[in-house]
Each structure stands twice: as C-alpha cells, then as structure tokens.
Amino acid sequence: MPGMITDFQAKYFAYDLTRRQAPDDGERMASAVAGAQVDLNPHQVDAALFAFASPFSKGALLADEVGLGKTIEAGLVISQRWAERKRAILVIAPSNLRKQWHQELTEKFFLRCAIIEAKSYNQAIKAGNFRPFTQDNTVVICSYQFACSKAADVAATPWDLVVIDEAHRLRNVYKPSNVIANTLKGALSGKQKLLLTATPLQNSLLELYGLVSFIDEYSFGDLKSFREQFMAAAPDRVFSQLRDRLKPICHRTLRRQVTTYVPYTKRFPIVEEFTPEESEDRLYQLVSDYLRRENLQALPSGQRSLMTLVLRKLLASSSFAIAGALNSIAQRLRGKLADDDKFSELDLGEDYEALDETADEWDEDAPEPLTEADRRAIAAEIADLDGFAKLATSIEENAKGKALLKALKVAFAKADELGAAQKAIIFTESRRTQAYLLRLLSVSPYSDGIVLFNGTNTDEASKKIYNAWYAHHKDTDRITGSRTADMRSALVDYFRDQGRIMIATEAGAEGINLQFCSLVVNYDLPWNPQRIEQRIGRCHRYGQKHDVVVVNFINRKNEADQRVYELLSEKFKLFEGVFGASDEVLGVIESGVDFEKRISGIYQQCRQTDEIKAAFDQLQRDMSLEINQAMSQTRQKLLENFDDEVREKLKSRNSEAKDYLGRFEEQLLRLTRHELAPYADFPATGAFALRECPPWADARAVPLGLYELPRRSGEAHLYRINHPLGEAVVARAKAHGSAAHEVRFDFSSHSGKISALEPLRGQSGWLIARLFTIEALDAPEDHIILAGEADNGTAISPDAAKRLLGLAATMGEMDMLPEGPLTSLETHWDDQAGRIRQANADRNVKFFEAEADKLECWADDLKLGLEREIKEIDRQIKEARRAALAALGLEDKLAGQKQIKSLEHLRTTKRRNLFEAQDEIDRQRGTLIAQIEGKLRQNIKTESLFTLRWVLV
Asked: Given this model, what pLDDT does residue 74 score?
C-alpha cells in the first residue's frame, strides 16, 4: 500500500468516497460492489447501472436469461439506494423465494431484511405498530399474495424502490381478470420499480405492453392503440419502432454473451428404477382409491385439492411419511366427532415442509358446512384410515430406499470420474422420510459425515454442529444474531468441511450455496419444475468447478410417475445440458403450483394406463402450443442485442468497474489506516486488526478483531464503507480542519511513473479543494473541484492535483501565508465549475429530450386510437350505403338510410370528441413537460474543504 497520508488527504478521500455521482456514471456502483461479498461480473454491473441511468426513470425491466444472477443485479441497485439513504425498499417475490432473497441480501450485501407475512404482520398490529410495512433501515420482503392482500398498506408506504421477482406473473396485467397484477399495479403506482424476469415475452406482444405499463404508464398509449399500432402493422416496421420504445426500459443479456466471465459446467442425469414390494403397492392403491372418494370428510372441503396433492406426494415419498399423515388425518376426524374446534384445521406442515409456500399460491373453494350424513360417514372413514396407517407402519423397508444405496454407488463413481468431491445432497419433501433415510444410511457404507437440513434442525446432531460452529466464529461477523440463519450457515460449513451427505427437505432448496457439492439426488421428485431447478441450482451455479450429477428415481409399476419424469426431463430439459431448464420453457408456467395442480388432477382422475397416457399427451400438447417458436423469434428481435456489441460493452465495463473498485478500496483502506493508526495493527494489505475501539466510534457496533476488504479468510469482519466502523472513520476524516497548512508530498516513494507530476518535482505552490454540488431533476451530484498552481504561475490540471493528493505525504512547517486572495486559483476553480455545470446541463437536456419524445409518442398513440375509431365508423358507413343500395324492399331501404344517418351522427360526435380529446391529451402532455422543465433548473451549493501549501519533493 502507498505510504502514509495527512489529514488533508484523509478529508479529501472521505468526501470522494461518499460523493453522489451522476445517474449514468460508471463509478457510481463502486461503493455497492465494494460493500458486497460477491464476485464482480460486468454484465451485472451493466444491468445495475442501466436500471436507473436516467433521472426520469420510473423503473426498469431486467430480463437476463436464467442463471445470470438477476438477484445480484437487484442487490447492487438496492445497495446503491441504501448508500443514498433511500432505504424504504420492498421486495415482492413468490412465497418460496422469500427466504432466498433474505439470505442473499443479508449474507452478500449485509443489508438488514425482514420477511413480513400474516403472523408477523398481526403481531406488529397487536404491539401497536399500525404500519408494519414501515421499518427503519430494513428491506421488507413479502409474497405476491400478501402484498395483494395488504394493498392499501403497500400503497400508503412511501417506497424509494420496489423490486419484483419473477415479474412475468404480471405480464397479463392488461387483462382485468388478473386480480393480483392489477391490484399491485394500483398499489405501486408512482413508485420506482425494478422488475426481474427471464421471460418477459412468452405468447403475445401484449405481455410486453403489460410489463412496461406496470413500470411506466406513459411508455405506450392505451391497450387499444397498442393493439392497432404494434399488432396490426407490418412486422419489420413494428419491430423497429417497438425496439426503440423498449430500449430505455428493458435490459437483457444472454448466457452465451458472458461465457468469457462466467464459466459453466454440465449436468449428467442418472435414473434409478425400482419396483415396490407387494405391501407398498397395496398401500399405494388403497390410499389412492381413498383420495378419489367423492364424500371425503378427512380433508377440509376448502383445501381438498391442496391436501390431496400433499398426501399423494407423501405417499410417493415413503411409507413412513404417509403413515404419519394418515394418523394426523384420523386424529382430526376423531376431533370432529367430538366437536373439538382445535381439530377444525388439518395441519400437515410437519409431514410436508413446503406446505405453507404451496398453500400461499393455492386457490381453493370456500368450505362447505358439515351435514348429518357426513357425520355418519366419519366413523367408518376413521376405521379405514387406521387400517391404512397400520399397513404403512408394518412396512419396515422401502424399495426406493434400497434403490438409493445402489444409486449412490453409481453416482459417486461418476463424480469421482469427473474429479469432483465425494459429496451428495439428497432432497426429500418429508421430514419423516428424512428421518428414515438417516436410519438407512447410518447402517450403510455411507454412514460417516451425514448432516440433516430442514426447517427447524432441532435434532441433537445439528445442535452439536451449531454449538461448535458458534464457538469457532464467536466475535466475528459470521454470527448474525439470528439462530435460524446461523444454524443454516453452520450446517452448510460442516457439510463443506467435514460432511459427505446432506439430507435436506425443501428448506435446503432455498438460499444456500453448495458449489462445493456436485451430486444432487432427488429422492422425492417435485412436480413443480421451478422447485426442481431451484434444487439443482444449489450446486449447479456460478462457482461450480465440476459437472453436476443429478439422480432421479422411477417406480416401474407407476405409469403416471414415469410420465412425470419424462415430461420434466424431455420437455423442461431439467436434468442435462449446460444450463438446465431454459427460460423459454420455464416461462410457459407462470406458477409452478399451477403446473402441480394439473399433474395432481391427472393422478386424481385417471386410473387406467390408457387414461393416464391420454392425459399426459394432452398436457404435453398444451405445453408445445404455449412454447411458441414464432414468439421466440420475436423476443430475439425485440429484446436481444448483437452478441459482438454486447461483448465489447461488457469488456469495457469489466475494465472500468475493476479500475473504479480498485481505486475505491485503496482510498478506503488508506483513509482507515490514517484514522485508526493508534488503535489497530495493519499486518497486510487489505487487512487490519482492531485492538481498541476509537472513542469516536460506537463500541457496541464495532467489534474488535481482524477486518478485511475484501474478506478472504472467512474469519474476519468484512470491512466496508457502510460498516459502523467505516462510517465512523469517514465522519472523523470529514471533520478535520481546513486551516491553511503546508503539506510535503513524496514523489520518490511512488513506485510507478506519474507523467502529470514530473514537471512539478522540486516545486511548490497552492491548492484549494471545494465540494461543488449540483441538484437538478431531483438527482444531486457532488464534485470535488481541485484548483492548484505552482509558485511560477503554472496551473495544475485537475488530474495532476488528484495524483498529487494520492502520494505519501507529511505535514510541514508553514513558512508563509497567501498574500491576499488567491485570485488565479479562484479563476481556475471557476473555470472547472463552469465546465461541470455545462456538462450537467447538456446531459440533463438529453435526458429531458428523451422524456419529451416518450411523452410525444404516448400522446400520438392515444390520438391514433381515437382516429382509428373514426376510420372504423367511415368503413361501417360505406358498408351500410352499399347494403341500402342493394336492398330490394322499401322498408329495408328506409332502415338502411336510418342506420346510415345514425352512423353519420355518431361520426360527427366522435369528430367533435376527437378534437376535444386531442386538446386534452396535448394539455396533459404540456403539463407533464412543464413539470419536468421546472426540475431542470440547477441549484448550486459550494463547501470549502481546505486550502494547502504544497511542496513536491
């Protein structure tokens, strides 16, 4: 690291590190990237910069292909907003992705987050907090359904940013029937929004209209004008116009464009077939027939299809899983007979861990009241359930369990062939099956290094792992304070360092990264393709060095199971290839739960092989129709840039971002070393050990110990500018005095060549530094203007002044004071300020012109729609005249003339209305432009930082 610095340089660094940059400045993201525990990928920085490049931006649609890290892109945007003190941030995601978002933002971006759902919302209300969405310095995360149900609260909160994941769920917002999308559009009107989806366009151009209008209602006219302008004209002209309109709001990068920066491995599928024993097969048939009964009292009528799905998944999982569920159901029925209210709801959450997430997206009919006939049937039903449970309990081994042992032998051999570590993650949908697999593997050749992962992890082995992990990481910021989050970290670390097999429920598919493992076993195969992709994605992700082996099981006796696997493998391409499921195919299903419903319906309704075959054939035909090849080509023409153009831009972005990041980190560490010299040791570049908390920092928030930037050892605290210690260091440096003093800069200590300073060696002069702030278009930007001059009258360029302040320096004796005002320096300073103001004005004029053009197009769209209505009436009048001339009878001719007069009257009215409507549109446009023009005026503020006498030795 370069040598020591003075208070003046520390003050300069502190202001430079925290200054607000222009919206389109590439250096703007440096603090967000430096403060995150993520690898720097240029396409992600590019997407984050695109998101709000214009101060007029109302949001953006980030549509990178699957696997390119849209969550990281959003995290960078959120971090930037956070650094700007704009911290009212909401993330809306599918319910099964909420934990993943929480973990990504917490662990990679060190942002405080809170998941808000019915339970926490109601607790907040009871505690007297009547605005639970308003949480200071906290990113709020919730599901689509919850945000919709609390739309009034969401609308009343002044959000600085709203991020919406899997935003293709909103693409049909133009349809009044899409209640959730329309409710959210109303609740989030006027808020800045960041929409994330790999599939912004699946079946119709109207989907693009829907997503763009969700962000900015002035990007296009109304639905009618969009149809007429972009869906009825010649395709080539449409694509050109539509592409231009989408360019400012939609950003898409493809996987093939980033292979220089992101290496991808492959997936290899292994299928292990098994044949159930006679007792297992009989249990399956008995429970299946039971679930098909018309009058079924064991399942709440309002949740019957959901619970049927759950029970079928448990039945396919293991005899142990279904035995527990059958006992729960029988217990509920006994409670109903006893009129015990506590048994009114059936809770299978202990048996099927993904129940809450599935139920959150599952629409059911309202429950029906219990009849007397129902009551009479309950006793008999209890007897049946007890019989099924007894049979299930009598089964001590499962054929699929034996198949697992065979599959592991084959899969580990394949992993060994690929050079991967001997580690496997086994996924099941049931905790009871998880316990069975633990017993099975504990007496197998794979008994060493087994770790469980589920939603609670209350078993003794997990507690022991957690306690050891906690003791090891005590006094580091690996300890988050959340036992749940720390337990997850402890189990993953154990699996990485000591374990061989992790047996995980669906909780393991969310928010953990297992790049060190390359063997995924789907002991239970979900019917939801998005869940499967999520599971495999724990291992097959950025940072994986080996090809990933994926193991699945097929029941030879079950035609439906075989067809489900075929569908997931051949149509969704989940288990092989470089990328897994394509965004195009995954985009066919807006919600994986809807797809599960369709498969569950086949299991429920079809008994015979030919019925099952016909139903799955129809499902595949439906999918093929929805995967529209023509629309795929349309998406390419509209949303994808030329590969070479993108690669060149990413190459440039990669170089710039690394330069900005390197300079940012160096300045922060030099500043920190200067301020913490009495309190810390600096044994290596990028690291320091804090011995004592400075009196000007908050000891409660600043632990002692090792700090690193970036973190490498895993044991250190990650040092960053928004860490409490970093914030204290910056505040301390900014408070340094500004009285004139001499500073001696040591050129010889610099190892490289600095051409700009060569002519100044051996000379001295004066330097002034001031913070120059311009605020226009609600986008303040800060500039530190350095004006310097040598004693011989030679002006120092801004670049030379920056490089001078970067040298090692010491405070010297002040042997002279300036004689009167430094007039020449003021002139140099004014020149720089003038250039900055002009550059700001020129850039803002371009932003203004782009926004004005958008509003012109919006107005023209609406006028076009009105004019088309009159043209349509003209056409109807011509047809009516032809019909009247062709009429044979007097009565028909009179009726024809009457229709013509009616249409002509309507046309006259429409023409009159057209002029009035066009005037009103022009008035609206004029009002909007006037509002924008009012924001163009520059507000200028200047703050003196210091004046110094420099000597370059």
From this structure: 95
Question: 350 vs 176, which has greater pLDDT?
Answer: 176
Q: Please state whether 67 falls in left (phi above 0), alpha (psi between -120 and 50) or beta.
A: left
How many Cα atoms within 13 Å fall on the side-chain side of residue 215? Answer: 31
**Rounded-to-10 torsion of CA 524, 530, 531, 535:** 100
- Provide the angle, in degrees to the nearest 10, between the axes of the packed helices 643-676 and 42-51: 90
Side chain identity, residue 259: T
Q: Where are the alpha helices (DSSP H) in 474-608?
A: 483-497, 529-536, 559-566, 583-586, 592-605
Report how far residue 135's alpha carbon sits from residue 952's, in angstroms, rounded to the nearest whole number.
51
**Alpha carbon distance, N-terminus to C-terminus of the chain:** 20
Residue 438 has pLDDT above 80, yes or no: yes
Q: What is the distance between the alpha carbons of residues 303 and 358, in angstroms, rounded to a whole number?
A: 12
pLDDT digits (tens, 9 = 90+) for 477-526: 677 767 777 888 899 999 999 999 999 998 776 667 898 999 999 999 98
Give the model confidence (pLDDT) of 82-140 as tens digits: 988 899 999 999 877 788 888 889 888 889 899 898 888 999 899 888 899 999 889 99
- Specify the pLDDT at position 852: 80
Q: What is the pLDDT of residues 519-557, one digit of tens each?
A: 999 999 988 887 888 888 889 887 789 999 999 999 999
pLDDT at 684 over 50: yes
Task: Retrieve residue 953's tokens.
Answer: 């030795």
Spatial separation of the C-alpha atoms in residues 587 and 166, rounded to whole Å: 10
CA gap 517, 509 in Å, rounded: 14
Q: Give the sheet arrangement for strand 764-775, strand by strand.
A: 795-796, 781-790, 764-775, 939-952, 741-745, 809-811
Most confident range (mean pLDDT) of 297-306, 417-426, 925-934 is: 417-426
What the block records as the tokens of 810 is: 């010491």
C-alpha dist (Å) from residue 226 to 24, 238, 868? 30, 11, 12
CA–centroid distance for 674 within its chain: 38
DSSP 248-311: TTEE---GGGSTTTS----EEEEEEEE---HHHHHHHHHHHHHHT-SS--SS-GGGHHHHHHHH
| pLDDT for residue 370 is more than 80 | no
C-alpha dist (Å) from residue 780 to 22, 568, 788: 8, 51, 26
Helices (H), 176-277: 179-187, 205-215, 223-230, 235-246
Q: Is residue 676 helix, strand or coil?
A: helix
Other residues' Cβ atoms within 10 Å of the Cβ of residue 470: 16
| Residue 13 in tokens | 């660094």
Mean pLDDT in residue range 770-786: 91
Structural domains present in the chain: 28-260 (3.40.50.10810), 277-394 (no CATH), 398-448+500-582 (3.40.50.300), 738-953 (no CATH)
DSSP letter at 577 equals B
Report pTM.
Answer: 0.79
Is the peptide bond preceding residue 369 cis, with omega within 30 degrees of 0? no
**How many angstroms separate the CA atoms of 873 and 876, rounded?**
5
Calpha distance 145→158 (Å, rounded):
20
Nearest Cα to 558, choosing from 285, 291, 319?
Answer: 285
Which residue would you say has higher pLDDT here, 449 or 921?
A: 449
Q: What is the pLDDT of residues 457-471, one digit of tens each?
A: 889 999 999 999 999
CA distance 505 to 430: 6
Which amino acid, 471? Answer: A
Question: Which residue spans within 694-763 are E strands per DSSP?
Answer: 705-708, 717-718, 741-745
**pLDDT exceeds cutoff 90 at 932:** no
Determine contact, residues 837/44, Cβ cutoff 8 Å: no
Cβ(566)–Cβ(552) below 8 Å: no
